[in-house]
Design a protein that fits this description.
With 354 residues, the chain is mainly alpha-helical. It contains 9 helices and 7 strands; from the N terminus they run E-E-E-E-E-E-E-H-H-H-H-H-H-H-H-H. The protein has a 3-stranded antiparallel sheet, with no helix packed on it. A two-stranded antiparallel sheet has the order 1-2.
Length: 354
């Protein structure tokens, strides 16, 4: 761009600058003398002056102006640093490296768990949301949990009663079923159902709120998303899951006793008496502790995956699926660790059933 005219204002570049070294005159001329018939002369004296002129390549961009409809022009130098970084410095080590998504999501789970614990200890809990989530996790999930526990109990009854009847250990069937349900089946099966129903809902809801910037709106309004969204869900899941586990244990034992009595001829009184002699209070307490741990894993992982969702609707679906999978893996890992700690010295409770 050599020159541009607009009204009575004109611009010139270094290409219109002529220097006469002999006469020490610098003459500036416009491209179109008809528009501006003037000549500027600068007397530099008897000495010769050198003007260093750096010529840079520029690009002209003409964009329409939406305000007045006239085009506007702008220039960009080719040597301009568009990355907003110092041009004279070389990139440092790991300057362009970003941590993998699973790494910072795992860290977000730990950070979110710490925030929930601190908020709960300080009493910063939105109780209205907590009650709503408690109703959602508890009463609304009873039907599917009980149905699952009933069929799981009947399936295990078919396997155990056949084998124990052939060995003449009919009086041990109830104790084996009671220990299996109280220690492993009831908390794990209930947690799996809750992870599929409630954990996926938590991840989908918070993920949708994240991609639609509703969580940012809460921050603008002065509400902490952890207090308003995450903490009520974690508390509701940890409180409701132990009661669901007890209900599943009861329904599982009842369905097992009914099936054993009606199909295999083992009396209900024999099964219930055997279960009563085999069970200890610690078995029920351990089931409730496991349920609380599983509930915290489900809720925190689901909420963390939800608040770290990226990529619109596709990201919401991926976060929901990944949250359920990670929750199930965490349940199985925690179940192994807790079982190893709780029942490492057990092994003589079935002696009372023989």
């Amino acid at each position: 761009m050599q020159a541009a005219t607009y009204g009575s204002v004109f611009c010139f570049s270094h290409r219109n600058l002529r220097i006469n070294a002999q006469t020490s005159l610098v003459k500036l001329h416009a491209l179109h003398p008809s528009q501006l018939d003037r000549k500027f002369e600068l007397d530099l004296g008897p000495h010769i002056h050198n003007f260093p002129i750096n010529r840079k390549l520029s690009r002209l961009y003409v964009l329409p102006n939406t305000n007045d409809g006239h085009p506007s022009a702008s220039t960009v130098d080719d040597g301009m640093n568009t990355n907003h970084a110092p041009s004279g410095t070389s990139p440092t080590f790991l300057s362009n490296w970003s941590p993998p998504r699973y790494l910072w999501r795992g860290l977000s789970v730990l950070i979110l768990a710490g925030q929930v614990i601190m908020k709960t200890l300080k009493g910063k809990v939105h109780w209205r949301n907590t009650l709503q989530q408690l109703e959602r996790v508890g009463p609304r999930s009873v039907g599917v949990c009980l149905l699952t526990a009933a069929f799981v109990g009947m399936a295990f009854t078919i396997q155990f009663v056949r084998e124990f009847t052939r060995l003449g250990l009919n009086r041990s069937v109830g104790g084996v079923l009671a220990l299996a349900f109280s220690r492993e089946l009831s908390p794990v099966v209930t947690s799996i159902v809750v992870a599929g129903r409630i954990g996926s809902a938590f991840a989908a809801e918070l993920g949708t709120m994240q991609v639609s910037e509703q969580t940012d709106t809460l921050r603008v309004l002065g509400s902490d998303p952890v207090d308003y969204l995450v903490t009520p869900r974690v508390i509701a899941t940890c409180v409701a899951l132990p009661f669901l586990t007890l209900l599943c244990f009861t329904i599982g034992m009842a369905s097992s006793a009914l099936l054993a009595d009606s199909v295999y001829g083992v009396s209900i009184n024999i099964i219930l008496d055997s279960a009563q002699r085999a069970l200890r209070p610690w078995d029920i307490i351990s089931a409730m502790i496991k349920s609380q741990v599983f509930g915290s894993i489900i809720s925190i992982v689901s909420c963390a995956w939800g608040v770290t969702t990226l990529g619109g609707a596709k990201g919401v679906g991926e976060s929901t699926t990944s949250a359920v999978v990670i929750s199930l893996v965490g349940i199985f890992v925690a179940d192994f660790a807790l079982s190893y700690c709780f029942f490492q010295g057990a092994g003589d409770q079935l002696k009372n059933c023989i």
